[in-house]
Amino acid sequence: MRVFIGSRDLSRGAQAAETLATQGLQATAIRLDLDQPQTLSEAAEIIAADHGRLDILVNNAGIFDLADTPPSQASLEAVRRTMEVNFIGPLAVTQAMLPLLRLSPAASIVNVSSALGSLSLNADPGSTYHSQQFIGYNASKAALNMLTIQLHEELRDTAIKVNAISPGFVRTDLTGGYGDMSPEEGARLPAQYALNPECSGGFIEPAGKAPW
After folding, report:
1. d(Cα 86, Cα 63) in Å, to the nearest integer?
2. I want to staple 164 with a disulfide (CB 3.0 to 4.6 A). Which of 68, 75, 94, 148 is the partner?
3. Which of 129, 137, 178, 193 is catalytic?
């Protein structure tokens, strides 16, 4: 499988591709910046010229802002920026890539979500997520889940499967290096559903089906 790594900083994407090359894995870095809409269409053109279609799209862009707090205190700018990146961004990338996904005989869209986006868990006092009140981040992931549901319904009669995957608490830059899973461990579930989706329109976490 030919892998394209979309990154805001092309040099960092190239560095990641070089690291993968030392492991015998082929990947190509392309610039994809949600703040620069033209890079989305340019990335689609590169993929079309190189491969003619797109089989898998993983929407993995995400941010967390420390000024994102419970609703009464949250910075509106932080909430606005988080929604822009975590929800509007995947929507924009998906729109740019859908024409290429439609050319695949069996395509898959994976939206990397979070259990923090579950309305059921946010409303459950017994849930470990109940106290994690970050209105911008949680709402952005709930919106991403809505995108998953509506894309699934819109594309029901096509060869494109769409799922929201909550990989778990992964140690990345977004989490400040905290978490109980390595990036490699966190990538397993999204990769599984990208390569061989068991359903479409699902919200899946490591323990199984997650509540909306």
Report:
1. 7
2. 148
3. 137
